[in-house]
Amino acid sequence: LVPDPDPKVRLQLAFSLGAASGPASAEALAKLALRDGADSWMRMAVLSSLGRGADLVFQRLAAEGGFRKTTHGSALLVALADQIGAAGRDSEIAVVLKAMGGLSAGEKLLKQKLVKALVARQTGAKRERILAAAGGQASAILGNILKQARATAIDAKARDAARVDAIRSLRLGGFGEAKPLFAALLQPAEPPPVQAAALEAIAGFPDAGVAELLLGAWPRLSPNSRARAAETLLSRPVWLGRFLDAVEKGDVKTFELDPARVQLLRQHPDSEIAARVGRLFVDARQSRQEVVDRYQAALKHKGDVARGKAIFKESCSTCHKLENVGNEVGAELKGIRQRGMAAVLLNILDPNREVKPEFMVYVLEAKDGRTLAGMIGSETANDITIRQIDGSAVDVRRIDIKSLSSLGMSFMPGGLEFNIDVPAMGDLLSYLNSID
Asked: How many CB atoms within 10 Å of residue 241?
């Protein structure tokens, strides 16, 4: 069926070969990649069928010089190297390292991408073993990548996109040597994309020093950066403990943590942590019905549409989009006035009363010790994307998931009354009611 003229047949074949194993299956997948690799769906299907055998497919494709030089060919080889590195099987890693030795001098960029992909998910002794196995070649390449990344990351004259890419490459090195650079990248003078990339890279290190770095930077972080920093601090038990210590000392104020995040922490699987959160954030609790009753006055308030639009941008646009403002993460808001403002007010103030499955909060526990909370943004055969409360998205490979469970509660945060008083809610409702 590999040469079948129907592309749908070939695509289904790529998926079905995942149920087989061995050299014959790998050879068939390699042939499909050579023929249809320019199609992103075929590349995804090939990758999804390679729990085992990725090294055989990589070896076959890397031997094809013409394929390596195409954009899609290079992308698939890098994706395979990433998958092989994540699996961490020495015999498969050796195949990639050997193939790298056959690349020409003009394929320096591909070599760099392959090394980055191969070691991106490895730390400590495993990473050192991979680098040593390459006879110094991978180590030298990685050293050059990190040297250039450090120079570009801190270069205020470089384009933001180049700096962001360089910052992400810093994860290939050790946290200790990158810590001073990360501290500099979190200064208020740095543009938001640079700070966001630094926070994303910092979150990838398991080191205890991450908490010290982020809590030290906390007072000078903007609201968006602070939200991202909070998600990082709450993702690992050791960092969470340090964060709660800071709350207890008053270094972090209780109102500085999103009410929705507090609500999630109250349901933490560790009963001691849940109890501690309950003691520290006592002021955050209010009966939902009491709040709903108190805010009925907003329905009678003659609100200001312009002020309401500004409130939407500040408090709602992280997850919702209206009039080209915001992000399409949460529920669709087009035609929202047709629902009636009383129903909309109830959804805002008591989001857990009625929750559609696609907007429920899930807790994902990763094998590397991270705990991520948010909505499932998308799924593929290989990955799950978690949309966190701060608006950021984290991709997790299925093979890296330890557990995934729903909390049975809405992604829409509760406690918005702490940020929006009754008159302001009237303004917000007036704006929403003005949208056709």
From this structure: 16
Gap between the Cα atoms of 184 and 424, Å rounded: 38
**165: enclosing H helix or E strand:** helix 160-169
- pTM of the predicted protein model: 0.57
Tokens of 197: 């990339």
Chain CA centroid to CA 220, Å: 23
* Chain-centre distance for alpha carbon 351: 24
Contact 386, 394 (CB under 8 A): yes
DSSP assignment, residue 238?
A: H
- Residue keyed to tokens 């390459």: 134
Do residues 58 and 96 make contact, with C-beta atoms less than 8 angstroms apart? yes
- Helix (H) / strand (E) element for 383: namely strand 383-388
Residue carrying the six token digits 């450090």: 150
Place of tokens 């129903």: 343
Residue pair 174/204 in contact (Cβ under 8 Å)? The answer is: no
Predicted confidence band at 272 (pLDDT cuts at 50, 70, 90)? very high
Percentage of the chain surpassing pLDDT 90?
34
| Phi, psi (rounded to 5 degrees) for 225 | -65, -35
Beta bridge partners of 321: 326
Query: Which residues, including other chains, have CB under 8 Å from residue 352's CB and lie 6 or more apart?
Result: 288, 409, 410, 414
| Collapsed DSSP state (helix, strand, coil) of residue 364 | strand
Phi and psi dihedrals of 47, rounded to 5?
A: -65, -40
Q: How far, in Å, CA of 172 to CA of 174, rounded?
A: 7
- CA-CA distance, 108 to 88, in Å (whole number)? 24
What does the pLDDT read at residue 129? 65
Per-residue pLDDT at 354 exceeds 80: no
Distance CA 214, CA 343 (A): 40
In this predicted structure, what is the pLDDT of residue 228?
A: 87
